[in-house]
C-alpha cells in the first residue's frame, strides 16, 4: 500500500502494533486496500458533474466510472476512466460530460479486479424555468466535539437537490486542544496539529470515515469552499493566527500542502471561485474570501494596548484603519468578477442571486451592557474580553474583525454593486458557529438578506457565557442590531433553503444533541424573503 503518512504515525504503528492505535478507523486507514472512503460528487452543471472516490492499490490504478438513471446500471448514461494514484493520496476525480439537465443519476467506480465502490447518487443542474430547488448549508464540523447529526439528518431527506459546505470541514488542531476534553468515540488523526501534507491528508482520511459525512456525500452533489481551519485558524493570504513560522516553517509551504490535500480529498475543481446556474431560478456564486487575497485581520487588542484614552484610540481606529478603502477579502480581480457576474445574472432575468461564502456578512455590534453579562464570580478573562467588546460597541465598532465587519469598505462595494444591479441577493455563510438572520442594507436601502448558518458541532457563545440564558443574549443582540432578524447562540445543526420564483424560505435546523448519535429532538425555525423585497417577511 502506498500512503504518504507522517513518520511519527508510522513509528507509533511499528512500536505498539496497529491494535494500539487510537481508533479502529486509523488501522483501517493504514491497512485498507481497494475502495476505502466511499464516493462523492460535486460542482454540477446542466450537462456535467464531478465524481470522486479513493482506491488503494499497488500503484497507479485505472478505474472505470459508470453513471445510470437507475440503480441497476442496466443502461449506462455516461462515465469514463480515471487513475487513482499514490501521487494524489490514491484519490481519483473525474468530470463526466454529456449528461441530461435536471436529472438524478446513480454512479459507481469499478476496479480492474471487478470490485466496486459504493453506489452514489448525484444530480445535474436544471435549465429553463424551475419551480423549486432545495439546498442544504453546512459549516464548522469539529469531530471531537460531538456527532455529525446534522449530516445524518440532511442525508435522510429527499427534498434537497444540492448541499453547500462553506468551510471548516475539519479543524487543524492537535487532539485534546479544541476541545480539551474530546468526546469518547470521536478520535481524530493525526493526534498532532496538521502542518505537513501527510498531516492534512490523514486528517481528511480520518474525518471521511465518519458514516454520516460519508452518507451525505453519497446522496447529494456538493459545492464546497474552504474557510480557515482547513489550513490554520484565522488564516489570511500571508499567514494565520495558528501558524508560527519559526516552528512550523514558511506559511507558503503549509498553505500549499493544505490546498493540495483539499483538492485531492474534496469533490472540487481547481477553480478558486466559480458560479453555478440553477436554470432561471438562481445563480449560485462561490467566491473565496479567506486566503487568496484577504488582508490580515485587524485586532482590538493592539489598538487598545497601552492607551490611556481607550475611547480616543478606538475612534481613531474606526475612522482610519478600519475604514481603509483598500482592505479586501477577495482582492480587486475577484471583486470585479463577482460584481460583474451579479449584474449579468440579474440582467438575464434570473430570479435570485445566491452568494455562498465563508464568513458572516451582516454587521453585528455587541450590546453596550456586554461587560455586565458575566457574573461577578465568572471567568475574569471572559469579562475582560467582553468589556473590550463593549468599549468597541460604544465607539460604533462591531465585535468580529475576522468577518465582513472587519472589511466594511469591501462589504459596501459588494452591496452597492448588488443593489445597483437590482439583484435579489441571498447570502449564505458560516464560520461563527451561531445562527444569524441578517437584513443587509446600503445607505439605509435594503440590499438583500443573509442566512448565516450555525455549526455542525463547534461550540457557540453558550460556551463562553454559560450562566446567561441564550434567549436573553439573543434578545440583547437583536436590540443592539436593528438588521438582526434572528439569532440563536447555543444550538448546533444546519440550514436548508427552499427556493421558488416567488420566495426563498430558509430554516435553521437545531439538533436535539450532539453528545449522542441521534437525530431525535430536531426542531426548526425559519424566515422567508419574497422576491423583489430584499428583507425578511414580517411574521
Automatic annotation (TrEMBL):
Pfam families linked to this entry: PhoD, PhoD_N
Domain called Phospholipase D N-terminal: residue spans: 37-124
Alphabetic keyword roster: Signal
Superkingdom in the source lineage: Bacteria
InterPro entries linked: Metallo-depent_PP-like, PhoD-like_MPP, PhoD-like_sf, PhoD_N, Phospholipid_Metab_Enz
Range of residues in the leader sequence: 1-27
Residue intervals of the PhoD-like phosphatase metallophosphatase domain: 137-508
PANTHER family on file: ALKALINE PHOSPHATASE FAMILY PROTEIN (AFU_ORTHOLOGUE AFUA_5G03860) (PTHR43606:SF2), PHOSPHATASE, PUTATIVE (AFU_ORTHOLOGUE AFUA_6G08710)-RELATED (PTHR43606)
Stated name of the protein: Alkaline phosphatase
Taxonomic lineage: Bacteria, Pseudomonadati, Pseudomonadota, Alphaproteobacteria, Sphingomonadales
